[in-house]
């Protein structure tokens, strides 16, 4: 970074709050506006007090900062900047005080204003609206040195390839808008586990630092001839017969266009603005392509390429991935057969095969061996799935092993369509985090599917798709006739079948469960994003929690 470049005053505010927050925002270009940030923006939009000059942007190369002051006031011949804060002031021994980050921000504005106006500025003021108090910040002789010191530290961080550690002041994380990205609690759990050989990590558990409303939903457009347009900040879905549905863009995680539906340019633009990927798929659920705004965070991708090019990094991660998948398959069969002794006896040879593959995967020395053990386990697992279908269910719903491309029975048609939806969910999570889906750690780039998305979906095939499909089949959710289309040996879902499975899948994705290593509850939808972020941590100096989830 050159000496002529300046920092936003808000960046110095972040720096004083937490160096890691500064790094994530300014170096990795991650910004997540949460409810508090939205509230702050609204407050600034509402401000229009008489006598205040608002919207003044200033920059000083000499100071190394730039920024837009909230307001300026002139009282008794003195000019000073006013900063508005929605929250509360710090409680000092003799009354309200500014928070350190707010004080640095106010000083930076005062110095900018002094240079801009060519006159001395002796104080800044901060208005804390929740307390209804205004706190004065004197501009002392040390102010210039304080701001210069912060700018120097910011420059040093910008030239470092490493994220600073999480702040030791845990309370700050509770109020931090980047907690869902930074994952400070997860880092603390991993560190505690490392220090105590695993014991304290589990005991400590992690606080869940992301709000429930951060979970947005996939919007599926299934009806042939439907159209997706834009109205304000909503996506409007118009069915061919004219029925319309408006969905707020902030409620949508991704838009999935099945078959021959249309999306207008205006709607695509809204999706790009709001970071909503648009997936185009065939009526059988196969991916055609996607549209997404170009991602920032080039540094993040460079780190990914470097890390995953090293076998010493990629192979242990691939092994954890396979162990998680196979162990979840084993647990699924064990759990589904635990109350039926006869069933347990029938599936026990398969369970033995899965256990043997698990031991083999743990010892595998290359990706080929890993994939081999994974394949053996998958074959045994699908052979046992037929036993788990309720004997009273329609025999047509019972699978015969695993058949794909094309599926040759109804159960496999459901599983294949479900895996297609899971692939898109995981791809959306990878795009959201800003990793490159084309660069994976286990799968080779052989088909049009992205290897990293294929890798990560291994973690969720059993808990999200297999468990949900088996449950729905056993609850008789699907009609063996009207929900399927049979063409020769090929079996596909009909439109009604697709709609039912989409509903089952979306419901399952948003079910909450307790993470086995972190100790808090979260939905599978959120967990997909979490695993991508935990994967990235593996090569960012905070390893240990990727692929640790197991079904109970
Ligand atoms: S969550 Fe905590 S450690 Fe992470 S950036 Fe925010 S304040 Fe810093």
Helices and strands in order, then pairings?
Layout: E1 7-8, H1 9-17, H2 19-27, H3 35-46, E2 56-60, E3 65-69, E4 71-75, E5 78-85, E6 90-92, E7 95-97, H4 100-117, E8 123-128, E9 133-138, H5 143-158, H6 170-174, H7 179-182, H8 184-195, H9 199-204, E10 217-221, E11 227-231, E12 234-238, E13 244-248, E14 252-258, E15 262-263, H10 265-273, E16 278-281, E17 287-291, H11 298-309, H12 311-337, H13 341-363, H14 367-388, H15 410-433, H16 451-457, H17 461-474, E18 484-487, E19 490-493, H18 495-509, E20 512-514, E21 521-523, H19 524-538
Parallel strand pairs: 1-3, 5-8, 10-14, 11-15, 14-16
Antiparallel strand pairs: 2-3, 4-5, 6-7, 8-9, 11-12, 12-13, 16-17, 18-19, 20-21
Helix pairs in contact: 1-2, 1-4, 4-5, 12-13, 12-14, 12-17, 13-14, 15-16, 15-17, 15-18, 15-19, 17-18
Bound molecules: iron/sulfur cluster.
SS-based structural class? alpha/beta
Overall geometric form: elongated
Biggest sheet architecture: 4 strands, mixed
Poorly predicted segments? none
Relative strand content: 15-25%
Radius of gyration of CA atoms, rounded to a whole number: 27 Å
What is the share of helical residues? 40-55%
Mean pLDDT: 85
CATH architecture level-2 label of the largest domain: Up-down Bundle
Name of the CATH superfamily of the largest domain: CRISPR-associated endonuclease Cas1, C-terminal domain
CATH topology of the largest domain: Four Helix Bundle (Hemerythrin (Met), subunit A)
- N-to-C CA distance: 50 Å
Q: Name the strands of the widest sheet in spatial order.
A: 4-5-8-9
Bound molecules: iron/sulfur cluster
| Annotation field: number of helices | 19
CATH class call of the largest domain: Mainly Alpha
